[in-house]
Amino acid sequence: MTSTLDTPPFNSLAPCESGLWSHGHVTVERVAAGPLTLTRDGDQLRVTHALTPEDLSERLVASVTASIEDADFGQDEFESTMVGLVRSTVDGALEAWTVYYRNSLNELLDGTADFAPIHEKAEQLVRGSVLDLGSCFGFLPLRLARAGRSVTATDILPGTMTLLDAVAPELGLDLRTLVCDAAHVPVPDNSADTVTAIHLLEHVDENIGAAVISEALRVARDRVVVAVPYEDEATACHGHIRTFDTPSLTKLGESTGRPFEVFEHHGGWLVIDC
Fold it and tell me: Which of 61, 77, 137, 236 is the most buried (most CB within 10 A)?
């Protein structure tokens, strides 16, 4: 997941009141009881919840998405809501994020998370060292680091890499981070054995997507692994701006002039050999 916040970028590690987090026009508050509720009051969005630390994980993405009944609910509000849920549930910035990361990784590794089959397949496909494009929270890089691989996580948002840098040591994991545009990665040619772009291309237009693939091929020594969701309509609140199917992935593979494979597994996959 990438971000294009309309409001100024927020600091996910900034101090906040116990049980209350706000950014711009979004306020998230933990209450004693009740369901996850999103309501508007003029130009303000108020979110209330009664989550516990055990509830904090990536599965909240599905819960928040299911709670949205507002066509104007954009990616900035979605991301503000997600950060607010984490920060208002556990006191202390690093403590809250460590809980969120640990729970999420456990669910991704034991197969209970919705995204678990995608990360499992990505881990099977990578070879040697890995540079991951558009890492966002960095769950895949952390998984690969846990498996003993040399990993570099990248993202265009400095805040996500700062967060990953802070939390990884708390989880006993070691990886590198790099702030950059996925179409312009400041590393030499053939810097990693595998370059991954997992659920990234749906966030960018066709021209930028082609540039991302070109850059991935420049950086990769062995292969490039791409995964995208198959959607009938792009999910705007997640920042998706285009959809894919097998023919479009095949066309993208053909455009590289390299050997490639396209297959379906909880979405679409394109594996390009260098």
Answer: 77
Q: How many helices (DSSP H) and strands (DSSP E) are in the chain?
A: 8, 11
Return d(Cα 7, Cα 9) in angstroms, integer.
6
* Token pair belonging to 58: 């990536």
To 5 degrees, how large is the angle CA 69–CA 57–CA 85? Answer: 55
Q: What are φ and ψ of residue 49, in 5° steps? A: -160, 165
> What pTM does this model have?
0.91
User: What values do phi and psi take at 176, rounded to 5?
Assistant: -105, 150
Nearest CA to 255 out of 201, 209, 221, 223 is that of 209
Burial per residue of 65-94, b for 16 or more beta-carbon CB atoms within 10 angstroms, e otherwise: eebeeeeebbbbbbbbbbbbbbbbbbeebe
Rounded Cα–Cα distance for residues 216 and 81 (Å)? 32
Please write the tens of the pLDDT for every residue from 166-215.
Answer: 999 999 999 999 999 999 999 999 999 999 999 999 999 999 999 999 99
- Provide the 10 A C-beta neighbour count for residue 262: 19
State pLDDT tens for residues 253-267. 999 999 999 999 999
